[in-house]
Fold each of these.
Amino acid sequence: MTNTVPPMRERESPNHGPRRAGAAIDMLVLHYTGMDNAGIALDRLCDPAKQVGAHYAIEEDGTIWRLIPEDRRAWHAGLSFWAGETDINSRSIGIELVNPGHGPDYHSFPEAQMVALEALCRDIVSRHPIPPHRIVGHSDVAPGRKRDPGELFDWRRLAAAGISLWPEKIEPALPSNADFAELMRRFGYADSSVESIIAFQRHFRPANLTGIADDETKARLAALAKQAGLA
């Protein structure tokens, strides 16, 4: 594997501010744009009236746009929570993937886009102390409010590339309901509500979004917590 990132295109977004004093960059949040095409998405991310921005955007053909310097607090996560933190924007880097999002045209993320994302993620984590379990989707930090990048995003592929986590080895011992709730909070989720469980399943069991802490969901969470050193 290489950390070589394809040449980037530059476009300045005004939608950022200073990071909170003392906040380390230790999270990476992935989004989809939810727009019809890259041109519309980039215009929105660079429109001061919209007040939404991200550090990077990646088109379906793999073109990477650098929109906001990494040392700035991009306005991408909004009202969110992870592992006790509510100002996710101050401690994260945001990447927008061009995709129409949930609806009749929602589709999987093309090969060129995924290859570019992997290279960009490896480059980012080589410069910032971001552990794999803190590479999350917008839906993870804002369950019930956001669904992106969604169940068609290939999180398992990112884990295979050494970038994030995937529960390949399922734990045989299942946590109790109380232990499951505690593990959800320890892993990062705000709680073990139906919305949070769906967000977890959207990320780690995308084929079956029930919102129920069934045995498979519990086993996957236990495996992930163990991988992350949180069990």
Note: Strands lie at 8-10, 16-18, 27-32, 56-58, 64-66, 72-74, 92-97, 135-137.
Amino acid sequence: MKISLNCKLDSVGAFGFIKPISDIKEIDRIDVFRDSEALKCKKVIYHASFKNQNNFIGHISKLVKMFITLNKRYELFIGIYEIPHGLFAYIMGKIYGVPVVISIIGNPSYSKVRTRIREKITYFMYKRIQAITVTGSKSKQVVVNNGIPKNNVYVLPNSIDVERFTPNKLIKKEFDLISLGRLSPEKELKNLLRIVVSLKLKRPDIRVAIAGKGPELEKLKEYIFKNKLTDNINLLGFVDNIVEFYNKGKIFVLTSSTEGLPRTVIEAMACGIPCVASKVGDLEDLIEDEVNGHLINDYKDLDRYAEKIDRLLSNESEYQLMSNKSIKEIRKNYSYSAATKVWNNIKDKIGGQ
């Protein structure tokens, strides 16, 4: 079985998505179209001649490359994210009469990205393809509520290498709180800084590390300086060894106003780091409140964040219990093999059709 997949995911994210598909024994070859090669993966051939996927020329060059490379001998076309990648898979599927799967990796109800015209195109495609994957049950309900048959929608949680992301007790816990991700507006990282201001009244030596790059960096630096947090907060930028980074923290904090199912939270929990996160996207599938972490109903409720964080930092037995349950949850439901089962179900359905 030969399949085609196109995406814009970063190298690690692309590998995490492709690996469970490559583990299906009936699949012989996967042609992946992206702007550069990702991590090496068995059965995968990368087509990476696209200098910039963010502009029109880059998108057109990718579509042309797909036209040149693909043919009706391929049995499945996959697009990760609706436009343009899902649209390209849809076009190729229609040309060659091949089944199409579109994977939604973010929040399908995030209106700032899914504008009126874009949303119409998206649901036009959804109603004419064989399968859609989403990151959790809440996202599935959003899609179903918009007229898509629920049997066509599959919950495909982000998966990770559970043998790589593990606790390491030899690494010293340098930070009370950690955060990792793009420093972009929807992450609401100023809220994290405000939470630190509140916690500092009780814990003057609290240590926080924020890893990642993005457009909010200068605003965060300015806030840290104005509020005298330079001794408390480290802006680390890009980190090479993220497993080591997770293990240096005690609690992972997510303050986002919108998410799908963040891989960073999954990775942190796999390392035994309990999470205090906003109740957005599909995080309810991952975090059971008061059991393996804490969910905050309103991402603006900074007092609630501070209360839950302080409680975890103060109660060692509760912390260890949540840590152990976090590890157990990830190893059971968010491994590559768990994702492979979902893809096998999709393959069997499409094969039946």
Note: Residues 191 and 255 are 7 Å apart (CA to CA).
Amino acid sequence: MHSDRNLGRGLYGARKVWHQLKREGHQVPRCQVERLMRSAGLRGALRGTRPFTTTRADGLAVRPPDLVDRVFRASRPNELWVVDFTYVATWSGMAFTAFVTDVFSRRIVGWRCHGAMPTALPLDALEMALWTRQRSGQDVAGVVHHSDAGSQYTSIRYGNRLADAGAIASIGSVGDSYDNALAETVVGLYKTECVRHDGPFRGVDDLELATLS
């Protein structure tokens, strides 16, 4: 399981292996999983730092209030989504990946890779999230959409699309990663378990394939 290309990929730590065993119907104490992995010399991938910031606040934009207040919990799907995007260095230049994550299930419901970071990048990820939920017959009206104060998320175009979908915008303070900590966690896992594990990539197309996998 730990080295399975479709499961652990050599990245799972004891907690993820324990959860995967439970999903497969094996009731094994977590301490036993930790002990067996330790004795076998198996360990999960460790996340590093994030030395580059993609947030560029628009000082003139009117920002919605922070409706989350660092409480990243939801009682049902489509109650709270968190969004963010990050950079990825490729051989042909810098690329960017945007995510939309449902807080209830921690599922990435929308994502998009691009060679630049215009408003269209996170907007495409949002469109994918809306399409994913619509395809499964789920109503997203009233979902709280929480982001940082980046200019892409405070743009008129992005705000209008949220309003059209019936989503409620929520934005944390400028320069404070804790206000969007869950989205930052998703980005950290992505960089550790995909970018650093499968890269380096030749360009955006290769990055997109790796992200899809």
Note: The helical segments are 14-23, 30-40, 120-135, 151-154, 156-165, 181-198, 204-212.
